[in-house]
Every structure is written in structure tokens, then in C-alpha cells.
Amino acid sequence: MKIGIVCYPTFGGSGVLATELGIALSDKGYEVHFITYEQPVRLTQGFHPNIYFHEVKVPTYPLFDFPPYETALASAMVNVIVNQDLDLLHLHYAIPHASAAYFARQILKKSGRDIPFITTLHGTDITLVGRDGTYAPVVTFSINESDAITAVSDSLREETLRSFSIEKEIHVIPNFVDVKRFHQTDKNHFKQMLAPDGERILVHVSNFRPVKRVPDVIRIFAEVKKEVPAKLLMIGDGPDRQMVEEMARNLGIYNDVRFLGKQEQISEILSIADLFLLPSETESFGLSALEAMACSVPVISTNAGGLSEINVHGKTGYLADVGDVAAMAGYAISILQNDEELLHFKKAAIAHARKFEKQHIIPKYELLYEKVIADYKLTRESKRLC
How far is the CA of 354 from the CAs of 19, 45, 278, 318, in angstroms? Predict the structure, then answer.
């Protein structure tokens, strides 16, 4: 089977999941073609003989203040489908990938060539951007034109059904984790460098956007520091980074916070962590939390969106209401102050994460691919006979 994957190539959850899915499929013998504006971040880690990357080039002209990426993407899809003889397109993140796929489909139909496409919803394409009146009609239309729709959590599925007039079934296929990559390894030399006096290490990973509530991470850590010797590692970058760096200075904790920027080898950093903080305003799933759990790191998070589907309150960590810094700090302190309790949470975190191992999830996509292609061929044959 030849599969085209369309995604954002960034550090965000949708791009990470799409890339990891493509790698897993290629390992099983599928031919995978990524179509996006630059090589996905996690695709740079090693050579994969069954994976191909097709760059979407967007010409710049003085006429355009904002180059029409959607048009360039649709054209790239047409070229790859025709020249590589793809069987299926899998679109990650509705905007603008689903609408571009519909555009490409109409072009292909003129030449008698067409393939089905699946749209996977990841979160902010539904919960934030998609509901904007500027995009909502196009998002609704293009999702309904998809041959199959998936969501990464039950919470996102319900949110989509509340927010849009969806006419088709939404299949829930959760995100997954590769435990061969994300597992605790011996990195004590790193830990000694960052926490030479045995301090607890807390970690946060995000794109530092307002929805991640990164200032709450700093506030939580400031409270933890009053009770437990600790260090905080901040992984990622984004619009709120400068503000939270200033917050750390004003709170007098800056020397105990390391802003590491974007990192590719996150598993190595998680291997030395004692606790993961994710106080997001909304999370469709929380892939970064799952990857932390796979590295034996318990999680303190909000109960927003799909987080309660992976972070089990009182077992793999704790959940609190959005903005309840005091509760999250209290939970963090209770875990970090007791070695025996911390070890208990670490063991429970990795045990729960293994329920989301890729070998449990990838077959769900394979079955959906086979069904969509079979149904599509049957529909075309029925139309031909009529």
C-alpha cells in the first residue's frame, strides 16, 4: 500500500504523531510519502528506505501578502498522487489539509484519477482555530467530504460533534508511544550536572503558546521550591518564552530553571526527570505527557480535554482544574517529598503508558486504511455499473 501523509512538520503533537505513524508504517513494509513544506522534525532521526519526502514549494510574488499555501499544497498532492500512484491520503490537522485534499480530488476527477482521504483531528484545529467563523464553514465541509474521520481522544470526538455539523462517524484512535525510543535510560551524568546536590528535576515541554499556560508552570515550580530542593527544565520555544523567563527572574528562581529551547532527543532529558508538568488550558490528548510516562515520569496536569484519558488521578500522577496552581503545586510536593511514593508513581506511569504502545495502535489505522480503500473501490465500481 502506498500512503501519502500530509502534516505540519513541527514539534507539535499533530506533526509528531503523523511522523511517528509514517515511520511505524514504513517499518511494516508500507511505502509512505510525506507531503509538507519542510522535512518533519522526527524524520531527520535515521534513514528509512520506505519513506519519501515531497516538499511543498510556495512561490512568493509581490501581489501576495500571504502566499497561498493551500493552493500549492493541493498542487503538490496532485503531483505526488499521480506520479507515485498513491492508494490513500492521510491528513493530519484539518486546516488547511482537508480542504486542500478536497481541491486536489476535484482536479484528479477531471482526468479520471482519484483516491480516498482520511482526516485525523488533533485538537486546536477543532477547539480553537476551526471554530473561528472565518474557517468554520470550510472546516465543516472538508471534514464531511473525508472518506473517514479519526480523533485522537474521546474528548476531542465529543468536542467536534458539539462544535460542527458532522455527518459521518468519528473513529477514536488514540495517540501512541514508541517505548523503544521513549524509555528510561541511565543518564545519571546528565543529572549530576543539572542537579549536583540531588535536587528533584521537573520538566515541561510545549510550544510556549498561551493555551499551554506556561506561566502556571513557573508558578507551580516556585511553590515547589519552597518545600523541595528542585530544578526545572523548560523544553520548547514560542511566544510566551520571554515573558516566563522574566517571571522566573522576578520570583527569584531563575537560577534553578533551565530554558533548553527545542530539543530532538527529549527521551534523554525525560530519563533524568522526576515529574512532568502540563497545566494546559486544553489538550486533545497530551502526547508529551504520554512520552514522559513512558520514561517513568509521573504527570501533574489539568483535567482539560483528553488528559484524563491518559493521566490517571492518584495513580500515574494528579489532575487539577485549569488555573489551580495551588492544587497542582500541592500534588507535586506530595509526590516529590517521599521517595517511596515517587517510585510508586513512576512504576504506575510506565505501566499505564504501555497500554498506548504503538503495536496496539498502528493496527487500528491499518484496518481503517483497508476498509476505506475497499469501500471506495466498491463505490466507484457501483457508479461505473450504473
Answer: 20, 23, 20, 19
Architecture of the CATH domain 188-356? 3-Layer(aba) Sandwich (3.40)
Q: Give residue-wise pLDDT tens across range 313-354.
A: 999 999 999 999 999 999 999 999 999 999 999 999 999 999
Residue 236: strand pairing partners:
206
CB 108, CB 81: distance < 8 Å: yes
Q: What is the pTM of this model?
A: 0.87
Spell out the domain ranges in the chain: 2-176+358-385, 188-356
Q: Where does 2-176+358-385 sit in CATH, by number? A: 3.40.50.2000
- The larger pLDDT score, comparing residue 179 to residue 79, is at 79
* Mean pLDDT of all residues in 213-235: 97
